[in-house]
Structure formats: structure tokens, C-alpha cells
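Input C-alpha cells:
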């Protein structure tokens, strides 16, 4: 089942505390976002990628894309102040898609099998997102004191890719913008329309490179894949 993918890449990576956008940092000599693009470039079902980038990084990102021989980048959208704005700009460019994936450029370790499952489920039901069951005990805390222990059995940590029928996501994104609603993922925008969103069990390796310790884990994942 064919699909296209929108990759938000226009953040600044504040929590990484680096001197530049974290996506440009290297893992074993290659920029983080290139690993992400390579997964989709190699997937025969992927028909094209749209990247949302900051205007002043576009040239550098394009150079890397060319240097690493990434073939399926169809265009660059202007990133916005919030991730949701960047995604919407990317979606506007991906208009001919039937099923669209949104995937953080900062998640280089996504599994091709999970992508396949997400695309199939989104095609059937409209919306499917990647996630993994929570491993730790989760508690709510107020002013330094536990107020509640939440039942872990129902809790999932949500990742990207998030896959949708294009029309469903675009309408949800437009509605969110009209309402001034800001979500932390695409599924939230679709959830508020009442359309059910399915979950596909992903892998714990599909971690987002967010804080400096994630780079250590990222390097370890790359090394384990060489063995
Ligand atoms: N992103 C984006 N546009 C924004 C903010 C984020 O395209 N205005 C992208 C990031 O580049 C990243 C993905 O969305 O690929 C996930 O966001 P996050 O991990 O929060 O990245 P940053 O916002 O860059 O990091 P931080 O929140 O630590 O500043
Ligand atoms: Mg952010």
C-alpha cells in the first residue's frame, strides 16, 4: 500500500542543549535526520517525502539530502513556530496523497514493519498511530506529593509515525487551526473530531532524539545493528 510522508524538521532542539538544530548532529558520522530519511527512501511503498524546515536551514538540509543520495524528497515546506504549524505546511504540499504519514525527523530508528502496519490500518480505518506500552509505574504528583497511581495497563507512550487518510487529517488540522487548538500530536486533532484512532504496537527503539542521553542510546542502537 503506497503512502507519502511529511517530516517535521523545523525545530530548534532546545532540550538537546547543542549549538544547532539537534537533527544536524551526527550519530556515527551521519546527521540524525539522514537516518530517518533513509528508512523512507528505501521503502518501495513510499512515494515521496515532504520536509518542513526552517528557512535559514533549508540550503544546508538540501545539501545533505543531495550528498547522501536521498531520492524521494519531493519538496520543502516552511516550518512554523509550533510543530503543528510545520506539519500543516507539509500537509498542504502533500495534497495528492491518499494515505499520509507524519513522522518526526528526530526518530531515526523506526521499523519498516511498523510503517507497513500503520499504512494498512490507516487505509482501512482512517487513522493509526505508533506507540509502546508504558514500562514504569506512573503517578500523578501535586506539590511534591503523590495524588494518584494511574493504572498502567491502559497507558501507552505515543510515537510517530502517525498515519491517516489524507482528507481526514487535513480537515482535522484545518479545524484545529480555526479553533486555535494546539495539540502535541496529530492524533489529538483527529480524536477531537470524534473519529477513532487505532494504535499499532511499535518498538522501544523508536525513540525520539530529544535530550543528550538519547544520543548515547542512539549510538548503541546503531552499533547493535552492525553486529
Ligand atoms: N518541529 C518542527 N517545527 C517546530 C517544532 C518542532 O518541525 N516548530 C519538529 C522537530 O524538528 C522534530 C519534531 O518536530 O523533528 C519533534 O519535535 P521535538 O522533538 O520537540 O523537537 P524540537 O522542537 O526541535 O526540540 P525541543 O522541543 O527540545 O526544542
Ligand atoms: Mg519541541
Amino acid at each position: 500500500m503506497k503512502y507519502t510522508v511529511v517530516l517535521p524538521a523545523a525545530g530548534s532542539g532546545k532540550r538537546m542543549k547543542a549549538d544547532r538544530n539537534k537533527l544536524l548532529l551526527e550519530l556515527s558520522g551521519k546527521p540524525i535526520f539522514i537516518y530517518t530519511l533513509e528508512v523512507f527512501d528505501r521503502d518501495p511503498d513510499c512515494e515521496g517525502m515532504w520536509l518542513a524546515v526552517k528557512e535559514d536551514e533549508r540550503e544546508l538540509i538540501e545539501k545533505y539530502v543531495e550528498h547522501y543520495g536521498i531520492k524521494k524528497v519531493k519538496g520543502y515546506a516552511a516550518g512554523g513556530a509550533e510543530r503543528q504549524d510545520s506539519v500543516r505546511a507539509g500537509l498542504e504540499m502533500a495534497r495528492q496523497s491518499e494515505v499520509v504519514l507524519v513522522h518526526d525527523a528526530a526518530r531515526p530508528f523506526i521499523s519498516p514493519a511498523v510503517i507497513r502496519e500503520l499504512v494498512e490500518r490507516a487505509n482501512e480505518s482512517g487513522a493509526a498511530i505508533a506507540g509502546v506500552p508504558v514500562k514504569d509505574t506512573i503517578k500523578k504528583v501535586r506539590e511534591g506529593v503523590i495524588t494518584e497511581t494511574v493504572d498502567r495497563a491502559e497507558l501507552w507512550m505515543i510515537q510517530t509515525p502517525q498515519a491517516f487518510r489524507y482528507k481526514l487529517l487535513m480537515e482535522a488540522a484545518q479545524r484545529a487551526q480555526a479553533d486555535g487548538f494546539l495539540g502535541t500530536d496529530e492524533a489529538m486533532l483527529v480524536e477531537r473530531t470524534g473519529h477513532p484512532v487505532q494504535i499499532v504496537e511499535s518498538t522501544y527503539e523508536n525513540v525520539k532524539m530529544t535530550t543528550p542521553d538519547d544520543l548515547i542510546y542512539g549510538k548503541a542502537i546503531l552499533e547493535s545493528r552492525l553486529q
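The first strand starts at residue 3 and ends at 8. The chain has seven helices and eleven strands.
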